[in-house]
Amino acid sequence: MDSLFSQLPDSHTVLYGVFGNPIKHSKSPVMMNRAFRETGTNAVYAAFEVKQDQLREAIQGVRALNYRGINVTIPHKVEVMRLLDHVDEDARRIGAVNTIVNEDGRLIGYNTDGLGYVRSLKEETGSLQGKRILVLGAGGAARGVGFALAKEQPAALWIANRTVEKAVSLAKDISPYCETTGIGYDRVADLHSVDLIVNTTSVGMHPHVDATPLDTTFITPNMIVSDLVYNPLTTKLLAAAKSIGATAHSGLGMFIYQGAIAFEHWTGKPAPIAAMREAVEQALKE
Ligand code: NAP
Fold first, then answer.
1. What CA–CA distance (Å, rounded) separates 42 from 8?
2. Ligand 1 centre and the CA of 50: distance in Å?
3. What's the burial of 43, exposed, middle or buried (CB within 10 Å: 0-12/13-18/19+)?
4. Is 80 exceeded by the pLDDT of residue 5?
5. Residue 257 to residue 268: CA distance in whole angstroms
6. What is the pTM assigned to this prediction?
7. Cβ-contact 40, 6 below 8 angstroms
8. Pocket of ligand 1 from Cβ distances under 6 Å
9. Are the CB atoms for 168 and 144 separated by under 8 Å?
10. What is the pLDDT of residue 1?
């Protein structure tokens, strides 16, 4: 059997990890350790179950033990910001950090979710300039994705959410970068010439796989339909898009690229995307 590490950890091994709760389901260790092995990097990455009241101590541990990098996931992405020495401007605007880089004892926070999403989407479907985009949802993921989409110079951006006030509030935050409107789902049917639909809600995620976040009769063959959910890989929304002849983009790409950008911040090396994807796809089958 293939060994987990290109070499066994030794006294030079650089340490990485992910803090979250729950965390046992995380595919980040499989993906990141594969990336280290693929690039011949002497490093290991582990998952740490960190409870809400333990975050401060966990961050002190990063400093004391000289971890080079940490990913942060639910429920710590917002709270961790005030424990760091510096938060990058994009992460501050989004209001959440998912990646920490330890620069000689100085902890710097980044958010690679939105950038990772856009990099994956562009790689699979092309430029977003001039596109008319409908984002479904206004939660944490929508904030990262919304700001990153707005920087790609789309022609228009709408944010539709069940709780309309959250859509309006997020649209207001994004408006300086691109014309953005927050709406309720009741107004979606009135939108014309939408090029791209992005589902950032959890609707359709396992175990509720039969749900879709909007009426799929809205989808037309010229559209790109993108879903942040990657469990299942093909959601009911994406299956509907494919059957109509639209282009479907799955959430797996976002997961891989958010990790790839974190890897690049930490190591300064280009991320081995294909190997990372292979590792995650394999782990999802198990
Ligand atoms: P969140 O902050 O809790 O936001 C959830 C969003 O879903 C809100 O807009 C919420 O609307 C909406 N929603 C939930 N249930 C709904 C329902 N029954 N009908 C209509 N809207 C509903 O969660 P999040 O962190 O943004 O994550 C959202 C999804 O993105 C999750 O499925 C997560 O797995 C996925 N995600 C994927 C990646 C990736 O790498 N691919 C990364 C991050 C997140 P209200 O505001 O009205 O409650």
1. 9
2. 22
3. buried
4. no
5. 15
6. 0.92
7. yes
8. 113, 137-142, 161-163, 166, 200-203, 205, 228-230, 251, 254-255, 258
9. no
10. 40
Q: Is the pLDDT of residue 68 over 60?
A: yes
Assigned token pair, 84: 């760091």
**Contacts within 8 Å (CB) and 24+ apart, 79-82:** 79/52, 79/55, 80/19, 80/55, 80/109, 81/109
Q: Which of 166, 154, 144, 148 is nearest to 195 (CA)?
A: 154
Instruction: Tell me the HSE value of 41 on the side-chain side, using a 13 A CA sphere.
Output: 23
Q: What is the layout of strands, in order, in the sheet containing 224-227? A: 180-183, 156-160, 132-136, 196-199, 224-227, 247-249
Average pLDDT over residues 164-189: 97
Q: Is 60 exceeded by the pLDDT of residue 158?
A: yes
Distance, in Å, from the CA atom of 223 to the CA atom of 164, rounded to the nearest integer, reads 24
Query: What number is the average pLDDT over the span 49-69?
Result: 98
Q: Among 64, 26, 22, which residue's Cα sits nearest to residue 45? A: 26
Collect all residues with Cβ–Cβ distance below 8 Å to 156 and sequence separation of at least 6.
Answer: 132, 133, 178, 179, 180, 181
Structure tokens belonging to residue 98: 């998912």
Q: Which atom of ligand 1 is nearest to the CA of 166?
A: 46
pLDDT of residue 231: 86
Q: Are 198 and 134 in contact (CB under 8 A)?
A: yes
| pLDDT tens digits along 203-238 | 999 899 999 999 999 999 999 999 999 889 999 999
Q: Each residue of 111-147: pLDDT tens digit?
A: 999 999 999 999 999 999 999 999 999 998 999 999 9
Cβ atoms 275, 27 nearer than 8 A: no
What element of type H or E holds 233?
none
From 206, 228, 236, 256, mutation site for ligand 1 pocket: most ligand atoms within 8 A of C-beta: 228
